[in-house]
Amino acid sequence: MEGEAPGGASLIALLVVAAIAVPILNQLVPASSPLHVSTYLLTLLGKYLCFAILALAVDLIWGYGGILSLGHAAFFALGGYAMGMYLMRQIGARGVYGDPVLPDFMVFLNWHTLPWFWQGFNHFAFAALMMVLAPALLALVFGWFAFRSRVTGVYLSIMTQALSYAMMLAFFRNDMGFGGNNGFTDFKDILGFDLHQDSTRVALFVATCAALAAGYLACRAITRSRAGRVVRAIRDAESRTRFLGYRVESYKLWVFVFSAVLAGIAGALYVPQVGIINPSEFAPINSIEVVIWVAVGGRGTLVGAAAGAVLVNYAKTFFTGAFPEVWLYALGALFVLVTLFLPRGLMGLMDLVPRSSEAR
Amino acid sequence: MIKTTPGVPRRTILDLRDLTVSFDGFKALNALTLQVDKGELRCIIGPNGAGKTTMMDVVTGKTRPDQGSAFFGEVNLLDLSEPEIAQAGIGRKFQKPTVFERLTVFENLELSLWGDKRFLTSLFARLTPPQRDHIRDVLDVIGLTAECRALAGALSHGQKQWLEIGMLLMQESELLLVDEPVAGMTPQETERTAELLLSLMAEHTVVVVEHDMDFVRSIAKRVTVLHEGHVLAEGDMDAVQADPRVVEVYLGG
Fold it and tell me: What is the pLDDT of residue A3?
């Protein structure tokens, strides 16, 4: 049944197994063994899991709330930038220009002092707070205006897309103080651990597994609560919900902000694993891709969204390696086919299994 | 039916005065003045475009009038938003049955429970035993006990209408606004609905907008006829039907 989010136990079990087995296969199994998981593969899997967290965020707001956000890449990127700022401050004097405080790009721009909004990012706790607060604040301000004005449907989607695009243009500017089009890269270490060490990579992978499991459990708790039922009621009959005495805009805002925070955490975990963050993360196409992952997996199922993110990104890795020019067409075709033939995504297929066994 | 004791003024629960609403120059309501007493079951009839639905929209906060006043007891309805009006005790049943089709019958009633409706409260809300009993009682009244685990979307048209009335009962609304409750119903369903509405009169004030004259005759003591946005006639069904103005615009044709 919808709202019951089937397959949750399997997802958690799979993540626990992955968090234990993948590090062992990477660290203890020798590279010559066919069972060895290379650090490249481990990092790739970690990246997919970050995307799965982002997909959960979009499924919560779209699948359950009926709000098609085409701007979640913005929240993902903001979380990523907050992490990036911390990692840049950790470089310290080891940068090309050797300035103990200023990141390289600021020295290059002839800046002499650290801008005020870079203060505090040398402390991980502060940066971690910003990874959550920056996307939350953007979602709060945007959502407060949009939902209060009762902007819905395609208009809201276009606005979220515009928001993401505007953020991208802003972050491209050197004057913004976020490294312009180069963004941040050349990170050295996180919490004192060398990012180029395999063990650090393993720890980040395990942290991502844990974050995905926690994110899933939080989303499941929300969707199974009465508040979750109100959110689905709003999706299906908004004005009826209002006449029952619910403040629709406040429900939308809470879920939207939570979803943005989840996306921000995904971005924050993504950046140390891929080693770079730049304004292209805000690109509108990224937000649209997330929607495709969710649609492929099955919207309104949570587990399907996470699975869709991993599967589509695996396909992307394969196609962009083997037939790079085909990928965008394949993605488009996938979206069209799923919409036409699998309106409930891959999770819709899974539903057929128990039904046929019940019939026996 | 509440009897009026001489000397004790009847208590007006809904007091609309001089309400005017225009849409692009068309006056949907034209200085409409209407009072409903506590415990009444009032039927409002009138031809299409007479302003019946617009009146309900004003009372529930969906439409703001250009002029006039609307009071619910001591509460000025024009100061409140739709959820605030619902929380103040006015429930509305829409013309088209509007239930949450992808939630179960039980969940539909659960969401309609009277109480704190803020997000964080609902996030951690659990049904208390008295609340469960209340839901069971309402399921019994609307005759949907057997369907309680079914998705509301799977109900018949008549059952959806009853579920929606049940949702109003869950809200513990003092005043129920019911828009065309028997449209599209079979004669048996219509009869069942009449019984249901009559059974509500003891604890609620009910305002019914309806086209079906036989149905109106079967439930109403007092009928208000709307025409071109104002009250044309008011009284018992026989008096209203005998009124030549009413005959001209609506009944006689």
Answer: 46
Rounded Cα distance, B215 and B211, in Å: 8
Asked whether residue A313 is domain-assigned, the answer is: no
- The partner residues of B43 in beta bridges, in order of sequence, read B208, B223
Does A245 contact B94 at a Cβ distance shorter than 8 Å?
Answer: no
pLDDT digits (tens, 9 = 90+) for A110-121: 999 999 999 999
Longest dimension (CA), chain B: 59
Residues 207 to 246 of A: which have CB under 8 A from any B CB?
Answer: 222, 225-227, 229-230, 232-233, 236-237, 239-246
Q: How far is CA A164 from CA A60, A138, A154, A347, B69, in A?
A: 19, 11, 15, 29, 45
| 8 Å CB contact between A63 and A305 | yes
- C-alpha B230/C-alpha A217 separation (Å) is 56
| Contact: B103, A229; criterion CB under 8 Å | yes
pLDDT of residue B3: 43
> Domain containing A21: what range?
10-283
What is the spatial distance between Cα A333 and Cα A325, in angstroms, rounded to a whole number?
14
Domain count, chain A: 1
User: What does the pLDDT average to over A206-212?
Assistant: 98
Whose structure tokens read 């005959």?
B247
Nearest CB neighbour to B111, from listed A233, A247, A248: A233
| Rounded Cα gap, residues B233 and B240, in angstroms | 6
pTM (2 d.p.): 0.87
Which of chain A's residues have a Cβ under 8 Å away from the Cβ of B112? 244
Select the residue from B111, B128, B175, B179 to test the A interface by mutation, using most A Cβ atoms within 10 A.
Answer: B111
Token pair of B1, please?
């039916």
Domains of chain B in start order, with CATH, are 12-251 (3.40.50.300)
CA dihedral A168, A173, A176, A178 (to 10 degrees): 70
Tell me how far apart the alpha carbons of residues A195 and A189 are, in angstroms, rounded to a whole number.
5
Residue A301 lies in a domain: no
